[in-house]
Amino acid sequence: MQETDTADAYARLSKNPTGRKESCERQLREIGQAAARNGHRITYRAKDDNFSAWKRNVKRPGWEAILQRIDAGLCRVLYIYSYDRMMRQPRDLEELIDRAERRGLIVVTAAGAARDLSNYSDRHYLRGEIAAAVHYSDANSAKSKSAHRELAEAGHPHAGGYRPFGFRLVSGRMMPDPDDPGEMIPAPATYVVDLAEAESVRMIYGEFLAGVSPGRIAERLHAAGVSTVTGVAWTSRAVKKLLQSGAPAGLRLHHGVVAAVGTWEPIVPRGQWEEAQRMLAERAAPSPAAKHEYLLTGLVFCGREGCGKPMRTMSGGVKGYPSYSCSARQGYFGCGRVDASSARVDLHVSRRLATVVDDPDSARPGEGRELQVAAAVAARDAAKRQLEEIAEDYGEERITRVERDAARRRPAERLEAAERVLAERRPDLSLITQGKRWVDMDFPHRRAVARACVERVVVAPLAAPNGGKWDASRVHVDWR
Ligand SMILES: [Zn+2]
Fold first, then answer.
1. Ligand 1 centroid, distance to 312 Cα (angstroms)
2. 66 CA from centroid of ligand 1 (Å)
C-alpha cells in the first residue's frame, strides 16, 4: 500500500444481486471500515445517487469530481464499494487508467482488494473484471431471477454440478422461515472442508504463488496419488481452474467476478486468491515477442512536416515492441524519423471506437447536430492552437516543464471532448458489429469497424526527446 494516510471514497446508488437497493451511505460506511483497517483516513467522499452510472448521458457529478481530484494530484488512493459499483463501462476504466498513468492511483474495494493502476498486470486484471461486470449487468436487466438463484447469489453454493475440490457438500438443517416465522424450511446447503483435500489445495496455492507452473503442480499431485473430484489425474488446465475458482477462498463467483462472500469456511486467505488471479492474468498477458495484430494497418500516416507517407507495421520497431514506423528502408519511401508503439496507438483509437460501437443510440442526428459539429470543430482547432503555443513556449524555455504540463491539461481535455463529438459522425455499423459490444468483437471485426470509421490516423514526431514516455497528443484521428 502507498505511503499515505488519506484517501478518497466513491459510492454509487445501485441494486445488489437480489434486487435490493444498496444506499450510498451504507456503501460509504463499509468503505470507511475497510479504509480504517488499512490505516487510511477518508478525507473526501463523493457519491452519485442515481441507478445508471453506466449510462452515457447521465451526469455523474460525484464521479467527475473524483476524476478532477485525480488530475489535480489530490487523490492517490480511491476506495470504492466494488469494481462494478464504480463503473459499468470499459471506457470508464480506460478513462481512469489514462489519468492514473499520469498521476498514479491505487483503487481499493470494501472487500480489501487493492489494484495499482500503474501496474500492467493489475490493469489487465481489472479490465477483465469490468468486462465481466458489464455482462453481469446485461444479464441482470435481461431476466428476473428465481428465488433459487437469489439464494445462490447471497453466497450459497452452486446447486448441481461437481462439488469443488477441497470441500464436501452438506445439505442444510431445518430453520425458521424468515418470511413466516411459524414455518420451518430447509436451510440452504453449504460446503464443509475436506481435511485431506484441503492439504492439497494449500499445496497447489503455495507452489503456484512460489512460481511453480500449473503443469508441474499437476505432475506433483499425480505423483502423490491425488486425483480430482471426478477421479481423474490432475492436468495443468485443472490446476488453473482450481486457482480461478472462488470456493477455496470462500468466495462465490458469478461470471468470474466475486458476487458474494460464501457461507463456508475458506481454505486459503482471500489475499492469496487475489495474488493468484494477478499471476494468472500475467501468465495470460501477451509477451512483446508474441504474434501481434495491428488494428490500423494501412490507415496510419507520418505527421512529420513534408513527409506524410504511410507508416508500415514493424514487429520490432520501438524498443523491440511492435510499431507503426515511417520506414526509409529499401522499398519504402518514408522519412525514417517517426515511429510509435502500435499497441499505444491502437489502444488510443480503440477507446473511441468502443464508444462508437457500444452506444449505438448516443448519436444525436438531425436538429442541432450540425451546430454541435461546427462548435466541436472550432473547439478542436482552438485547443490545438493552444497546445501548439504551449509547446512553443516550452521549446523557447519561456515556461518550465511543470508549467507546461499544467497548462496542457485543460486544452487537452477540450480537444478530447471535441474529438469525441466529431467521432459520432459515422456510418451505420450494425452490419459489422451484429449488435455485439466492442469487448466481445474479434480482431477482424474490430479492424472492419476501424476501416469504416477512420479516414486516417496521423502520428506526429516527438516534439523533443522525453525518455520514451507515451504522449497521446501525437496521435490525430481523422474520422469519416
Ligand atoms: Zn515520415
1. 10
2. 40
